Q: What sequence folds into this?
C-alpha cells in the first residue's frame, strides 16, 4: 500500500503467566496511512495499548508474538531478518509515542530542557545548543509561551496540559512520520484536551503525520479521527469511518459502546422538559 | 418540608505557596437541594468542586458559611459516639477510587456488616440487611466473601455505594465516582444511582468534570469557575442554552458532532478578557 506508515497483520500475542499462557491479542489487523488519524477504541483490557507497544517492540520478555508489523516500511518483528539496529532506527527516527501521564515520561529531578532535548542529543548526536534551538522552536509551535524560561523549569512547576505539550514537542523533535498516542489527553481537563488536540491536529496536517490515536472515549474518537477501529477482548471487531461510528454502528459491540456513552443534548434545542410550568408561559401572540 | 441540604455562603481559602496570598478555593457558594433531588457540580480541575464536596460531608472546614442538612447545622460538633454517628447518617461520600475507601482486609459482607453494626443494627438482622444491600446495588451474592482486590473497578464502586447507603444517608456526595470506569460499567452505575434516588429519596450531589454524565443523572447544575458559581439552573436547560462564557467554553470543549477544538482557545481568550 502506498503511504502506509503502520501495517499490522494478524498480530497475536501471548504472555506467560503463573496459570499458563494467556492470549492478549488474538489476530489484530490494522493500518495507518500518511496524514491519517486512526482511532483505536475499546474498554480497559481489550489490548489497545498492547497493540501500540507491540508496534515499537516495547513488550515484556514474557510476551510471544506472531504476525507481521511493518512500521514505515521496516518489518519490526524480525521475521525477514530485521536486526535490532533497524528496530532501534524506527524508534529513534521514524515513530514517536505519547503516553497518558506526561509526569511519568519526564524525569522529576531534571529540568524540562534536559529531558526534552535528550533524544536529539543522545540519539541524533546534535550539539546541545542546536538541540536547544530546535526544542525552543517546537515549544512555540505547540503553543507554549516563554520557551526559554520553560527549559529551566522542573516538571512539578508545570500543569498537566503544559507537560503534555512538552512531551509532544519532544516526540516531534526527531521528525517522526508516525505518532502513537496512547490516551494522550485522557488525564487532562476537557478544555485543555481540546486545546492540545487542536495543536496536534495542526501539526499532523503540516507534517503529514500518521497518527494512531488510542482512547477509551468513543465520542472523542468519532470527533477527532478519520477512521476508527473498535477492539474487544484482543480482537479488532469493527472498522468504521469516524463519522458513522455513532450514526450507523455496524458491529453489536460498537452499538453497545455507543449506547452506553452519555451524550450532551443538542445545543439550542428545546428542553426535554420545560422548567416553567406550561400554564405560566406567555402565549404567543397574546396581547400584553 | 425542610430541604435536605442547604448550603449558604460557603467559603474556603488555603495558604498559598511561600509568602504568596491565600488561595480562594471556594468563594461564597449557596444552594439548596430537596430530598430526592440531584445537583451536578462541574468545572475544570482547580475550580473548587472537590473542596465544596469535602465541606458538605465535613472533610474540610469552611472559613465561613454554613451547611445545614435536615435542618441541622453541620458545625454543631457535639462530641461523643452518638453525635458522630448521627453526623455520618446525614452525609456520605463516594470517591473516584473506591480502593482508598475500602478496608482491604474485609470482604464485601464483612465491610457492610461492619458499617451496619456500628450504626446499631441488631445482630440477628445484619446478615439479612447485608444480603439486601448487595442485592440493591446489583452485587451477586457469590461475591460476599471477595476482598477488594478480587473485585473489578465497577464492583468495588458498587461496594462503596452499598456502604454509603447502609446507613440511609440524607445526602450522598459522589466525587468523580464514575470517572475511572469503562462506559458500559459507568452506564450501569448511573442507572443504579437513578434507581436509588427514586427509591430512597436520598439527595445526590454529583461532582464531575464530565458534562454529559452530569446531564444524565442530575436535575440541577452548578458551574464552578475559580471557586465561584458562575451559572446555576436546570441541568438540561443550562446544557442546551449556556449563558455564562465559561459554561459555553466547557460545553464547546466536550467532543461531539461538529466539534472544533480550535475554538476553545478563542473562547478561553474571550473569557479571560471578560473576567
A:
Amino acid at each position: 500500500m502506498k503511504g502506509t506508515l503502520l501495517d499490522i497483520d494478524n498480530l497475536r500475542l501471548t504472555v506467560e503467566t503463573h496459570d499458563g499462557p494467556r492470549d492478549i491479542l488474538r489476530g489484530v489487523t490494522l493500518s495507518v496511512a500518511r496524514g491519517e488519524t486512526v482511532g483505536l477504541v475499546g474498554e480497559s483490557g481489550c489490548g489497545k495499548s498492547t497493540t501500540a507497544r507491540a508496534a515499537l517492540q516495547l513488550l515484556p520478555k514474557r510476551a510471544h508474538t506472531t504476525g507481521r508489523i511493518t512500521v514505515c516500511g521496516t518489518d519490526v518483528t524480525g521475521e525477514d531478518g530485521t536486526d535490532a539496529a533497524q528496530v532501534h532506527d524506527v524508534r529513534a527516527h521514524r515513530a514517536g509515542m505519547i503516553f497518558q501521564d506526561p509526569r511519568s515520561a519526564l524525569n522529576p529531578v531534571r529540568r524540562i530542557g534536559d529531558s526534552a532535548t535528550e533524544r536529539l542529543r543522545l540519539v541524533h548526536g546534535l550539539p546541545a545548543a542546536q538541540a536547544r534551538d530546535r526544542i525552543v522552536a517546537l515549544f512555540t509551535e505547540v503553543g507554549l509561551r516563554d520557551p526559554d524560561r520553560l527549559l529551566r523549569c522542573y516538571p512539578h512547576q508545570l500543569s498537566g496540559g503544559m507537560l503534555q505539550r512538552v512531551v509532544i514537542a519532544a516526540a516531534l523533535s526527531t521528525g517522526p512520520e508516525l505518532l502513537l498516542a496512547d490516551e494522550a489527553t485522557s488525564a487532562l481537563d476537557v478544555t485543555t484536551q481540546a486545546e492540545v488536540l487542536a495543536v496536534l491536529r495542526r501539526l499532523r496536517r503540516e507534517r503529514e503525520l500518521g497518527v494512531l490515536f488510542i482512547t477509551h472515549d468513543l465520542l472523542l474518537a468519532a470527533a477527532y479521527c478519520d477512521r476508527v477501529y473498535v477492539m474487544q477482548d484482543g480482537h479488532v471487531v469493527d472498522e468504521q469511518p469516524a463519522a458513522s461510528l455513532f450514526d450507523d454502528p455496524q458491529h453489536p459491540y460498537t452499538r453497545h459502546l455507543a449506547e452506553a456513552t452519555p451524550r450532551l443534548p443538542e445545543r439550542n434545542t428545546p428542553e426535554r422538559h420545560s422548567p416553567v410550568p406550561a400554564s405560566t408561559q406567555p402565549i404567543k401572540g397574546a396581547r400584553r | 418540608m425542610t430541604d435536605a441540604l442547604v448550603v449558604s455562603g460557603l467559603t474556603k481559602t488555603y495558604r498559598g505557596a511561600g509568602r504568596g496570598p491565600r488561595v480562594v478555593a471556594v468563594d461564597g457558594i449557596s444552594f439548596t437541594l430537596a430530598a430526592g433531588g440531584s445537583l451536578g457540580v462541574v468545572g475544570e480541575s482547580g475550580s473548587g468542586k472537590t473542596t465544596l464536596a469535602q465541606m458538605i460531608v465535613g472533610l474540610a472546614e469552611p472559613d465561613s458559611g454554613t451547611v445545614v442538612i435536615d435542618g441541622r447545622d453541620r458545625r454543631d460538633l457535639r462530641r461523643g459516639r452518638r453525635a458522630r454517628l448521627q453526623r455520618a447518617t446525614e452525609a456520605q461520600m463516594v470517591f473516584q477510587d473506591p480502593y482508598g475507601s475500602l478496608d482491604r482486609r474485609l470482604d464485601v459482607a464483612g465491610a457492610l456488616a461492619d458499617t451496619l453494626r456500628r450504626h446499631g443494627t441488631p445482630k440477628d438482622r445484619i446478615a439479612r440487611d447485608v444480603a439486601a444491600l448487595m442485592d440493591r446495588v446489583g452485587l451477586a451474592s457469590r461475591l460476599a466473601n471477595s476482598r477488594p482486590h478480587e473485585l473489578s473497578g465497577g464492583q468495588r464502586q458498587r461496594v462503596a455505594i452499598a456502604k454509603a447507603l447502609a446507613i440511609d444517608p440524607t445526602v450522598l456526595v459522589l466525587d468523580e465516582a464514575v470517572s475511572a470506569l469503562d462506559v458500559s460499567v459507568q452506564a450501569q452505575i448511573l442507572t443504579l444511582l437513578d434507581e436509588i434516588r427514586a427509591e430512597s429519596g436520598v439527595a445526590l450531589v454529583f461532582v464531575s468534570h464530565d458534562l454529559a454524565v452530569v446531564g444524565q443523572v442530575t436535575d440541577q447544575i452548578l458551574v464552578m469557575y475559580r471557586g465561584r458559581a458562575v451559572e446555576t439552573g436546570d441541568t438540561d436547560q443550562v446544557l442546551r442554552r449556556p449563558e455564562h462564557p465559561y459554561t459555553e467554553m466547557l460545553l464547546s470543549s466536550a467532543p461531539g458532532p461538529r466539534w472544533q477544538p480550535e475554538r476553545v482557545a478563542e473562547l478561553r481568550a474571550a473569557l479571560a478578557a471578560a473576567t
Remarks:
- Chain B touches chain A through 38 residues (CB under 8 Å).
- The mean pLDDT of chain B is 92.
- DSSP finds ten helices and ten strands in chain B.
